[in-house]
Amino acid sequence: MTNRLFEKIFDFFFKTKEYIFYSLKAKDEYSVHSPLVFDFYTTAVKNSKLSLKEKIHNHFSSFAIEDCNSFSLINSKLQEESDNIIIIIENIHSNIRNHKQWKRLCELDDVFTSIDFFSLGLIIKSSKLIKRQHYILWK
Fold it and tell me: How far is CA 121 from CA 2, 6, 51, 87, in A?
């Protein structure tokens, strides 16, 4: 029981630290250089009262919600799909294990763009994106 309590306390402090770093690094639409990401951010994220998942679902036709721990499943899904896929990954900063998996996913060859909204992350594979970029944006 004490190990579980220690783990919860450690996760709380880790998440708090990550949120502080997120709030220092997060940008808005004026720092986004990709037209596709700028359009998505300004139309779907900033100008809508829907939840972030609903906004993404309305803006992209192909998406999946995955847990950060299913790394091999996400990797195989990226390799299967030919183009225009977005994968939503929840709780990317909830603990150190998820955070490491998120970083590892962002470094995959098939990932063109990743967006960190703190509570969830987006991995985008699209032929419209030519430069690999990682964004940390306000939701």
Answer: 31, 27, 14, 8
